[in-house]
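REVIEWER CHECKLIST
Item 1: Sequence provided? yes
Item 2: Single chain? yes
Item 3: Sequence as submitted:
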Amino acid sequence: MKQLVVGILTLSLSGLGALPPTGAAEACSTFLLSGAQGPVFGKSYDWHDAGGMMVANRRGVTKRAFILSPKDKPLTWTSRYASVTFNQYGWEFPNGGLNEAGLAVEIMWLDGSRYPATDSRGAVTELQWIQYNLDRFPTVAAMVAHAPTIRVSPIYGRVHYLA
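Item 4: Structure as written out by the authors:
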């Protein structure tokens, strides 16, 4: 995982010098390319809040979703995989990350996003959905197979994801 994280950071930082200066933007782009030595995953994160932190998340930690609606059932889980995440809004609320099995998940804004109505499934926030998947799954296929069993209960954003 260390080599992949360094590779992603190097790719992200090396491209900064080639970008022309721009004005304020509230958009982001995420991509996945096929590279000679494996997939290349990257993101530009243009947002009004520039602060953030890199967080190392341990495996074996029991967690509970932060849910605002009293009608929702907060999901609880124990992390199976360690991960590194980029967080702007606090611990356990990542905007993206990578786990030790190689699963990467990133968030992007999408005004057209719609969330399921409240039901009996356990719920997580739109940012905790990223942490939950990084904590629990080694592959995109495993994450997608499990996705219908949980629900996003949004706090703020209309988002979509790339894994």
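Item 5: Key structural point noted by reviewer: The two ends are 16 Å apart (CA to CA).
Item 6: Recommendation: ____
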